[in-house]
Amino acid sequence: MPRSETFPAEGVRRLYELTRRVTSSADLAEVLEEIAQGVVDGLGYGVAAISRLEGDVLVMAAVAGNDEVREEIVGRRTPAEQVLGREFSIADHWGILRFVPHDRQPEDQIESLWVPDIEAGAEPDAWHPLDALYAPLYSADGVLLGNMAVDLPPDNKVPDQQQRDLLEMFVVQAGLALENAQRREQLSRQVMLGEALRRLTTAGAHGDLDTALRAAVLGLTEAMDAAQVSVRCFGDTAHDQADLAAGFPRAAGVPGELARLLRRDLTQWVEGGELRPRLVTVDGQHPGFEASGLALVRHLRDHGWAAALVTPIALSQELLGYLVVMTIKPGVPFHPEEIEAANEAGRELGRLVRDARLRRTERRLVAELRELDRYKGELIATISHELKTPLTSIIGHTELLEEAGVHPSSVAAIGRNAARLDRLVTNLLNYSRIQGRQQLDRGKVDLAELCRGTLDMLAFQSRTAGVAMALEVPTEQVIVWGDGEELPRVIDNLCSNAVKYTPRGGQVRVSVRARQGMGEVVVCDTGLGISQQDQVHLFSAFHRSTNPEALTIPGTGLGLAISRTIAELHGGDITVESELGEGSTFTLRIPLVE
Ligand code: ADP
Q1: Measured between alpha carbons, how far is 199 from 197 in angstroms, rounded to an integer?
Q2: 183: which residues sit within 8 A by CB, 6+ positions away?
Q3: pLDDT tens digits for range 186-202
Q4: Lining residues, ligand 1, CB within 6 Å
Q5: Which pTM value belongs to this model?
Q6: What DSSP letter does each residue of 126-157 carry, written as one string?
Q7: N or C: at which end does the chain have fewer Cβ atoms within 10 angstroms?
């Protein structure tokens, strides 16, 4: 077909067809193949080869028209300067196309060119095997994305104006399609990285650190299409804690000696406030890796990896571990969003290590406190047993003293104080007994009856103290499932406290009721009241109010601790509502018999 007929009608139709195909592809590699194939099939060139610009290197990505050439040059990496700099500087500008005629081709350049096996024609416009024609691929805003070299033009003639226009128009469209495909690729990468980070955070929140480390290496390997991801968190030697590590696809992480050197470098970064990931490439670039750089490069070489991205895991200025991502991709081994994701993963792992440490410390403290509590219980039990026997003897002999003519007031004083000591020791014994108790002896217990018993017992004391006592019971019996020995202790304690801490002229009202499956005893007094601050520790053993007025009244601070333990052993509780100077209301709740 004479070339003048190719354009415009047929040419435009082909161009339209090509552009449509190219722009409909989603996959980046497919788009490049389509573009190259389009130039061969649609525009009639013998060979088209597209290289992608990755950093300062052109990587041959797609070749159409000649399978042998494809085998030979796909994946080949050429310094961008050699083509875009040197070649372009001696080229004729055909719009955005660049044409280097054979006679201008520098000697040393010829070696790197693919030279077709054709004879140079005699006509002035004949294509010469050493002629080179380039079509750079640009994004919409003029960023160079790649370069296409075409050879063996239609009819083996240097393309005329119409063909140049056609190629140029196609290349402009192809650049846009390439840009779109790259954007889509970037977007899907971002989505995958986001997903990997989300999985890491979830694993950290739900599981232990070990699970989180495994989630990190799996997720990042997938999202970054990495050759290997390894992570290590240093143990806490002070607490006999071993290192934790994970790796994927190989479980083994960075080998011993390299790990030691790497740790030395990373410690320096972190101490200097440098927490961002850094890159080591197999061709020997390792800024910041003073100690470990050479060993790292050797490690990359041994495994056939192109680069490693190393991220410290740190907490303020302490190095806690590291994350290493290896790739086989040269050129641009890691995209900016991947570096950001590694950075974020490092930060998240730092947070998780900190949380795990806090949890460990917490567990240790709780264990220590438990041990202390057990020891305290034992101590109380032993001491109170030892005190009980001599006290009984003292009380017995006091009675003999009066008969022997000792002044009655002295005998009374000895008796009062011995009785007080006896109450303290009894309380101590009760406390240690109830603390060690797991099971109760339960049966049907009538709450109103218990309260009547308590009021009888306190009748003399309340009358002497000038405190009026009243009992309100419902007509229906309130029967709880309780321990007939232990429950009276609780009601006695609440009621005697109410009388004890209520000044003369005050009132104590005890009510019994059933409510929401529980039997309740409400002890309400018009006494001293308890400040909010004291209420916090009210039920702790040995706690006494800070209120000076209450402190003048003898007490051990054990009654409420014993009472609450008994209530809880019943599956019930005791609550308090009180205001300083206004009186207090204590409510005991015990499950009703069903
Ligand atoms: P004790 O009365 O032997 O000191 P408790 O454990 O029974 O020990 O009570 C702890 C503290 O709570 C008391 O020292 C007292 O300060 C305060 N408290 C208990 N009940 C009342 C109450 N009804 N009114 C005011 N303060 C009370």
Answers
A1: 5
A2: none
A3: 888 899 999 999 988 88
A4: 493, 497-498, 501, 525, 527-528, 530, 538, 543-545, 550, 555-561, 584
A5: 0.57
A6: BPPTT-EEEEEEE-TTS-EEEEEEEES-GGGB
A7: C
